[in-house]
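Final report, results section. Input specification for complex C-07:
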Amino acid sequence: MGHEHKLSIFRGFVTFKSNTQKIWGVLIFLSIITGVEVALGIIKPEVLTSNSFLYMKILNWIFIILTLVKAYYIAWDFMHLRDEKSGLRRSVVWTGLFLIGYLSFILLVEGNYIHDIYKEGFIKWEF
Amino acid sequence: MDTKVTNAPTTKVWGGGNDPLQSSYGKMMMWFFILSDALTFSAFLVSYGFSRFKFLESWPIADEVFTHVPFFHGNYPMYYVAFMTFVLIMSSVTMVLAVDAGHKMKQSAVTWYMFLTVIGGGIFVGSQAWEWATFIKGDFGALETTGGRILQFVDAKTGERLALKDFSVHLDSHRVQHKNNNGIWFSSEKALPTFILEEVVAGVKGNDRVLIRTERLSEGGDKTLLSRDETLAKLSSATQVVEGANLIHNEYGNRLFANFFFFITGFHGFHVFTGVLINIIIFLNIALGTYEKRGHYEMVEKVGLYWHFVDLVWVFVFTFFYLV
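Structure output:
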């Protein structure tokens, strides 16, 4: 309570006159991103699905990056992380990012390993 | 002993008299609850990723499963989920507007925004329930093999999916559902599938345009279509008819797919449901003027954090369950 609101987003590229205006601005931005995601999900452009980067289709990279962008603006502007003390912000965000990143890394690597075992070992699944 | 730390707070240090991060006890605890809840959700989503990586060549394609929009017939992949996402983001916006109005001590504005938030949450939970009902009911039906794999049917001419009722023949069967008034003890069984295995098999054999589609994905990410000869050969491995989905069988493909659908969207839906309940309580408090008397609307901000978190999680569920 009683915090000053920081009214600039995109590193100061857009500055709003009031907090209410900023809320609507962020809504428009999030809606555009969701629209792009849905459009890409329906069209599935050939270029993006047939090429991959670091073992993952470019399209999936785009989805994941856009999701993280959306998550950032929800947390920073709707949940007011932008206005909190950096200590509180970091204790929540860094802890989460580290633990979730670690969990994703080990489980996905493990899943991939089991996949290879299933594929190259003497295991029959399609019968 | 008059040594003094210069930056010590002037108020009482013990018993919660100071706030180190310039945020109240309640708000900080809400943040740490959210952090731990985020770990639970990420465990769910990551185990989904684990299973999907494990069965990379046979995982169901979400676009082909979630194709329904209420009141409309036809194939509309993702439109309804996109609508649900938008509803949730919109109710997040009304919530943040309520918090903003609370800072300005405008009681009637907070009441209205809170009311709209509750309505948005209600629409989302209702949509979720409809989505579940559609998923459980299923629409095409399939056969399951000895190895637990799903065989779906495709029209050889049009390339469209075929439902069991499109080609199955009717055989005189003496199998009737066992009801609890017939047995020697009050036991009963679940409803029988619309068709028995023999009816579906006879239907496939008697109809040249029916082809089987297996779970295996090709290089391009499409399901493998068998030729007519392979289709007839494959029929012998079928053991039962599957219609719709439950925790053991589902007509969409890998069994884990339905399990993850129920657990991830169910756990999220439960959060939305409790969020709506909490929002209603806070709405009543606002309307009764509790926070006006208290002098601040911090309670709205705290439940607001929870509500935004529910939205935040949905953004990830949307991506990892429906898009990727």
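Residues 24-138+256-323 of chain B form a domain with the Four Helix Bundle (Hemerythrin (Met), subunit A) fold (CATH 1.20.120.80). Strands of chain B lie at 142-145, 150-155, 161-162, 210-217, 223-225, 238-242. This concludes the modelling results for the funded period.
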